[in-house]
Amino acid sequence: MRKPLLLIGLQWILLSAMAQNIDFKFSGGISDADLSAVMEKRVSGLLTELNAACAQNRELQLASFHLTSRASQSLQLLWKNFHFSCNDSKIRQLCLQDVNGYEIRGVAITLTPMGSNFKGELNRELTICFAPDKEITGVHMALANNSFASIVGKGRDVTDTRRRLEILKFVEDFRSYYDEKDLEALRNVYSDDALIITGKVIHRRNLGHDQAQMKPEIVYSKQNKEQYLSSLQRVFQNNKFIRVQFDSISVRRHPAKAGFYAVTLHQKWQSSNYSDDGYVFLLWEFKEGASPVVHVRTWQPDMIGSQKLDEDDVFNENDFFIP
Amino acid sequence: MRCCYIIVVGWLLTVCVPVSAARHFKFSRLETAARMLGVSDSVRTDTLAYTYYVLYKHQPLKIRQGIRGRVEHIGIPLFNHDYEAAFPSPVFECLEYLTLCQQYHLTENTLPLADIKFFTGSWSVLFGVGDRKTVTLETVKDRYYLVTWQEGRQTIVQLALPVNYELLTCMSRKQLCQDFVCRLNEVASADAPPVDYQHPQQSYYLIPEITPDQNIDSLGCLIFDRSRPQESMANLMLAASHVAPLATLQLELVLDHDRRERLSIPFRRWNALCRSFGCQPYFGLEDSSGETMRGVQIMCNIPTGYDHVLYVECQKDELGKKDIPLKATAYLYVPSSNVKALFASPKKQQSRTKRQNKI
C-alpha cells in the first residue's frame, strides 16, 4: 500500500517540478513601475498555473489571477479543447498599449490537444489583454506562427493609422478654434502649465571687415498660458477674421512618455491685417477618458531673411523635458 | 353657412399660403445670398430636384434644388451641365458660388479667396466667362485642382485651388460637423431608402491593409458567414447597402469642444449617408484574436479632402444574428490632405547642443 502512495507522491513532485515557475517581465512599452509590477506578477502567476494544470492534466484554477468573468469563462472553454504550457521559464515581452488597456503578445506555448483529430500547428502564441485597472480581460491563442507575425503586424499598422487620424482630428479641432476665435476652447486645450515659445526674426547689425551687414536671426520669447491667451485675445479683438491653415503635419509618438505625441506642422496664418507662415510644434498628451491637452506650442518663421529655416532647427520633442 | 366659408378661407390663408411661400435653403449662407441679392422671390417653391436659372442684373444665376426642393446651390454659371454630370466634382459649385460672392460682395470674409491662385485671368474675367467655354479640370498631386477655361486654343482663365474641405464646401468645419450630425440624426429615425454604391477595385488607403476590397467565396458571392468572421466583418463595412446584413450601430460621435453625442443608427444608413456626401468606404482589421473584433472604417472623401473615421467593434458570436450589434466611435472631418504626410519616425536627438526647456 505504501509503495503506490510513494509512487503517486513522487509523480506529483516530478510533475510539479516540470510545471516550472514562469518569470514574466516587460521588456519595455510601459513606464509606470507600480502598474508594470502588478501586471508582471499576474502574468507570471497565470502562466505558472497554466503550466501546472497542463502538467497535472487538471482544470484551471483561476480565482486568484484577477481575470474578468468573461476572460475566465473564455479561457476555461479553450482549456476544454486544448491544454497548453509555456515553453520558456523566463519571458520578456513588450507591453502594447491601446485605448482599451494593455496587451502582451507573442508568449510561446505548446498545445496538448484533448482530441485525436487535431491536425493543426502545436506551437502557438498567447495574447493576454489587460484593462487599464490591471484586470485581465482576455487570454487568447493567436494564429499559427507563420501567419501571426504578418497579420498582427498589419493590424498594428491599421491601429497606428487610425490613432494618427484620431490625433489629426483633435489637431484640426484645435486649428478651427483659432478661426472661430474661440478663446475658451483654446483655454481648455492648453494645459495650465503650458509653455508657449514664439520666434521672431530680427536683423542684427553684423560688422564685417569693410562694411556693416544686417544679419537676420530668430529670437525667441517664452510665455505661459495666461500671457499667451491674453495676447491672443487682443489679436482676436483687432482682427475681424482669422484663418489658420495647417499642412505637412507629422505625428510622432514620444519615445519615452506614454500618451505623449509630438506634432509638427506648417502653419499659414491669415487675418484681416496680418499674415505669416511658419512651423508649429505641439506636444500633446492624450489621457484615457479625458480630452487631450497641449503642453507645448512653439512657432518659428519658415524663412529667416531669404533663407528657408532648416528642418533640423524646428523644435521637436527632444527639446523639452517632461517630468 | 357664411361662418363656415369664412373659417375655411381663413384656414386656407393661414395654412396654405405660408406653406406655398416657404423656401428651404440647405445652408444659411445660401439664404443670406438670395436675400442680399434680392432674388428670394425668384427661388421656386416646388419640391422637385433640378437646376434652373434666374436673371439678376441681366446675368443668369444658377440655382440647384435638391431633395424636397431644398436650395443646395446658388452661383454664377461657369460649367457646362453635361461636363458637370460626366465628371462630378466639388470644384464646380465652389467656384460658381465664390464668383458670385466676389462679384456682388456677399461675404465680408475674403480670406479664403486668397487660396485661389489665378495663372491666367482674374475674378472679373471669370465672372464673364459663362458656361459655354471648354473647361478642363485636373488634380495636381492630390493637393490642388487646376481649372482651365479655353476658347479655341486660347486660355481665358486658369486657376488653382487647394483640396481643402472648408474651401470646397464654402463652410467652416463647425458648420459642416453640425450639418452632418443633424443629417445623421434625421436618417437615424427616417425611413429613407439606402443609397446604393459601387466600390472601387484595387486601391487602398495609406497602407495596403486598409482597402476597399470585399471578400468573395469560390462562387463569387460575398462572404457573410459566422465561421469566417474577419471576412464577414470587412464585407459588412464595405458592401453595398442592399446586400449587407442588417446591423445597428451604437455610435459615439467625438465632436469639438469636448462634446460627445451618442445615437443608435442602422449601419446601412450610416453608410448611405456618408456615400451620399461622396465618401468611399475603406476598411482595415485591427484585431480579431479574441471574441471581439476591432477595425476601422474610413469613409474617404478624396475630391473634397476629408475622411470620417469609424472605430468599430463587433462580437464574433453575434455575426450570425439577424441584426448585428456594432459599437463604434466616429471622428468626423479629418482632413485627408494632410494624411499622406502624417507619418514620421521619431526625431533623433540632435548632435548639436540645444537647451532643453522644462514644461
Oligomer: heterodimer
- Provide the structure class of chain A: alpha+beta
Main beta-sheet strand count, sense and barrel state of chain B: 6 strands, mixed
CATH topology of the largest domain in chain A: Nuclear Transport Factor 2, Chain: A
Shape of chain A: elongated
- How many beta-strand runs of chain A? 16
**Chain-averaged pLDDT of chain B:** 83
Terminal Cα span of chain B: 84 Å
Order of helices and strands of chain B: HHEEEHHEHEEEHHHEEHEEEEE
Number of distinct beta strands of chain B: 14
User: Runs of chain B with pLDDT <50, length 5+?
Assistant: 12-21, 194-202, 348-356
Report the total helices of chain B: 9
**Secondary structural class of chain B:** alpha+beta
Helix content of chain B: 25-40%
Order of helices and strands of chain A: HEHHEEEEEEHHEEHEEEEEEE
User: Sheet bearing the most strands of chain A, described?
Assistant: 6 strands, mixed
Trace the largest sheet of chain B across and list its strands: 9-8-13-12-11-10
